[in-house]
Amino acid sequence: MATTRDGTTDGNRTDGASESAADTARQQLDRAAAHLEVDPGIIERLKHPTQVHRVSIPLRRDDGSLEVFTGYRAQHDDVRGPYKGGLRYHPAVSEDECVGLAMWMTWKCAVMDLPFGGAKGGVVVDPKDLSEGERERLTRRFAEELRDYVGPTRDIPAPDMGTDAQTMAWFMDAYSMQEGETIPGVVTGKPTVLGGSYGRDAAPGRSVAIVTRETVEDRGDDLADATIAVQGFGSVGANAARLLDEWGADVVAVSDVDGAIYDPDGLDPQVLLTHHEEPGAVSGYEDADALSNDDLLTLDVDVLVPAAVGNVLTADNAPDVRADLIVEGANGPTTAAADAIFDDRGIDVVPDILANAGGVTVSYFEWLQHVNRRQWTVAEVHEELESTMLSAWRDVRREVRDRDVSWREAAYVVALSRIADAKTARGLWP
Ligand SMILES: NC(=O)C1=CN([C@@H]2O[C@H](COP(=O)(O)OP(=O)(O)OC[C@H]3O[C@@H](n4cnc5c(N)ncnc54)[C@H](OP(=O)(O)O)[C@@H]3O)[C@@H](O)[C@H]2O)C=CC1
Ligand SMILES: O=C(O)CCC(=O)C(=O)O
């Protein structure tokens, strides 16, 4: 059983809630399927991953001792293209969490109309407890253990929580050494010197900001008048907060794993540093009020952006949430029970599979750049991302209006229709 950084010991949870990521994903699938005429066999099939690989990763620690870590790669569905999804290093990683996250990747790639399926993996480890050398050795051994299951046309990992471009470079190098040739296409989210795309690091946060801007304006409000609370000031949260601030919104609260800071007059996310930039900088910040991560979620703000871990919005705190709009930066921050409460309370929740999809979208751009052997400028990446996000956001909004359903159901309707059509066209799918 894993011990999480916040002290809980439930192997499937990051917050001790009773709904696992796979439970949530299956309940969301059932709710959305009710709006579509899809063969029930296809829906049943989509409740199960195609394969889950569990590997043991021996690591020689710097002090000479040997520790064995557990890693997973869940491959959910590949009807539309190779499996695609990140690798997470976090103490609460579990098989069940990887399965739920892999399911969300399948819908995310379909809602963005990308030619990929869904996968997710990770290692049960707190990367902050490892030296850089230990992280490199762990990643190389993980890549060796996954060698038979990944590849540019099979399954393409990318960064997620606790991993970054450097992790992808080590993974790509270890895989390439085993294969006997350089194979950059085995991962995306690489450093740009190895064929990575400009703008990939900031892309999930950028898409959260774009989706927030569009949805706020669609509700008839002005982004410049909006107050925003962001849970998690890491890759997704900090990039979203900085862009929203640049576009005129007031980011009044942000947090890291140790707690939140709040200033009703607005923080300056441009000067606040992430843990990666300076460890402890957010919770150690002194010119704002200190709050708990739980308190941040119930602040009286216009927009709440949960951008840290899963299952933070539950049946327990959903009745106390005061935001009018929730935009999911993290994967799976809202349990199905909380979703139903938000529905009843008229609080719109723009789902993860649309909001944070900028990451996998720029991963797709990286793949295109690799195939064409031409690197795009950051301006080209931003322009393409903006237009791809707007097109997906409009597809989903059309379903929200036409079917009078929630944003999550609408996004699932778009995704599921495309997946079901692909399964039907390929034929004999069972
Ligand atoms: N990176 C990517 O490409 C993508 C990530 N996502 C999702 O976004 C979420 C965040 O990922 P990412 O930004 O990459 O991760 P990072 O590790 O860069 O940042 C995570 C942030 O959340 C904080 N945090 C960690 N644990 C907790 C906790 N228990 N309670 C509150 N805050 C916590 C961290 O604090 P501290 O700084 O102290 O560590 C950090 O500020 C995840 O759900 C991930 O799956 C979605 C799409 C793409
Ligand atoms: O870029 C990718 O392939 C995957 C990103 C990811 O893991 C996610 O969107 O949750």
TrEMBL record:
One of its GO terms (molecular function) is oxidoreductase activity. InterPro entries: Aminoacid_DH-like_N_sf, Glu/Leu/Phe/Val/Trp_DH, Glu/Leu/Phe/Val/Trp_DH_C, Glu/Leu/Phe/Val/Trp_DH_dimer, Glu/Leu/Phe/Val_DH_AS, Glu_DH, GluDhGdhB, NAD(P)-bd_dom_sf. Residues 1-15 have a biased composition (Low complexity). Residues 1-25 are annotated as: Disordered. The record marks 160 as: Important for catalysis. The active site is at residue 120. Belongs to the Glu/Leu/Phe/Val dehydrogenases family. This is Glutamate dehydrogenase. The lineage of its organism: Archaea, Methanobacteriati, Methanobacteriota, Stenosarchaea group, Halobacteria. The gene is gdhB.
